[in-house]
Specification:
The strands form two sheets. This protein has a four-stranded antiparallel β-sheet with strand order 2-3-1-6, covered by helices on one side. It has 84 residues and is an alpha+beta fold. The protein is built from two helices and six strands. A hairpin with a 6-residue loop joins strand 2 and strand 3.
């Protein structure tokens, strides 16, 4: 399952990002975008990332437990997309 993570803190490294999701299972891919998007409402820069977890149950647990949780001072927003 591919998980899209929005509103990521600029202080998050690939290592602590991956470790956050590995607490819920095996992570096959964890990528933080090098591009930031500007929030249209407040102009603040927002980072985004993608995580892939092969086990659907583990991915759902990660989404359930991490959505709207702060990681290094910023509340992450997670969306899951089942694999085709």
């Amino acid at each position: 399952m591919l998980i899209y993570v929005w509103n990521l803190s600029p202080n998050v490294s690939e290592d602590n990002f991956r470790q956050t999701f590995e607490a819920f299972g095996q992570v096959s891919l964890a990528i933080i975008s090098s591009t930031s998007l500007k929030d249209r409402d407040n102009g603040q820069l927002r980072r985004f990332a993608f995580v892939e977890m092969s086990d659907q149950t583990e991915a759902q647990a990660a989404i359930k437990n991490l959505n709207r949780k702060a990681l290094l001072g910023r509340q992450m927003i997670l969306y899951g997309s089942p694999e085709n």
